[in-house]
UniProtKB/TrEMBL annotation:
EC category name: lyase
Reactions accelerated catalytically: 7,8-dihydroneopterin 3'-triphosphate + H2O = 6-carboxy-5,6,7,8-tetrahydropterin + triphosphate + acetaldehyde + 2 H(+)
Pathway: Purine metabolism; 7-cyano-7-deazaguanine biosynthesis
Membership in a protein family: Belongs to the PTPS family. QueD subfamily.
GO molecular function per UniProt: 6-carboxytetrahydropterin synthase activity
E.C. numbers: 4.1.2.50
Positions in coiled-coil regions: none
Protein's recorded name: 6-carboxy-5,6,7,8-tetrahydropterin synthase
């Protein structure tokens, strides 16, 4: 049997629901292995076709979506035409509600969102688009190895013309903050703790704040090119900023807040958005 592999084929940036952590932003690196007979070019699959073919399926199935474990008892799904409403109950009784176009949600078989469950779903979908000589495919999903602070965050960018407009997609992101030319690990650690499993929301997208069963909630809603989006979260999982939550504006916010606490220092923030990309802000 002939095998072809492609490491670091793409990165999946998405969000998922967890019974303990709630709404979690995640970034997984995808490696693939293809097995099969050689074609008339002496190849299992032309490298020039591997990435666009497989990346397209991954993007359509999971990337920039909210992943919901279909078989978890906390999941409450209601589909009405091209709309979907997702209800979710955390272990401590607090709730989450997400409403969006159907294409913004990935319903994954199983009781938990794991690399193995998402890989199995992607492998099934990919077998439908690969050439006949390819007899098997393995998708391996893994987190980036990060030596230092990082945080999981979720956001939505209503002005974005692509899939970033979806109100609940996210990233697992490293963070570097320099103060007067040297890494300030205490600042990095403080922000990583503060933004652990956080929703970075835009103040103007808040449409309601209320208390239910003694729990404060914040509801976001906006219209975007793909349709209407809404998200209700426990307020203690939300961090509000006065701007949109692009990575450029996130880096600027982190730099401004750090500068306010250290006005006599030069602050340099390198904020990542998932793997290998992000923004710099210097104050």
């Amino acid at each position: 049997m002939n095998h072809l592999f492609v490491d670091n084929l793409t990165v999946i940036d998405f969000a998922y629901l967890d019974p303990r952590r709630g709404l979690v932003g995640e970034s997984w690196i995808a490696d693939v292995v293809l097995a099969g007979d050689l074609d008339d070019q002496g190849m299992v699959f032309d490298f020039g076709d591997v990435k666009p073919t497989i990346k397209r399926v991954i993007d359509e199935c999971v990337d920039h979506r909210l992943a919901v474990p279909a078989d978890h008892p906390s999941a409450n799904l209601h589909i009405n035409g091209d709309r979907i409403a997702v209800g979710w109950r955390l272990e401590d009784g607090r709730g989450i509600r997400h409403e969006s176009p159907r294409e913004a949600v990935a319903v994954i078989p199983g009781k938990q969102i794991l690399p193995s469950s998402v890989s199995a779903m992607l492998e099934r979908e990919l077998r439908n688009v690969l050439p006949g000589n390819v007899t098997d495919i393995e998708v391996h999903l893994r987190e980036e190895v990060i030596d230092g602070p990082y945080y999981h965050y979720v956001h939505g960018l209503k002005k974005h013309k692509g899939n970033c407009q979806r109100i609940a997609h996210g990233h697992r992101s490293r963070l570097q903050i320099h103060r007067d030319g040297h890494r300030d690990h205490s600042l990095e650690d403080a922000w990583a703790r503060r933004w652990r499993d956080i929703y970075v929301g835009t103040q103007e997208d808040v449409v309601e704040q209320f208390v239910e069963n003694e729990t404060p909630y914040t509801r976001f809603a906006y219209d975007a090119n793909q349709g209407e989006f809404a998200l209700t979260l426990p307020s203690n999982t939300v961090y509000l900023i006065d701007s949109d939550s692009t990575v450029e504006l996130i880096a600027a916010h982190l730099a401004d807040e750090s500068k306010a606490n250290h006005p006599d220092s030069e602050i340099r923030v390198k904020a990542y958005e998932g793997v290998g990309k992000g923004a710099l802000a210097i104050r």
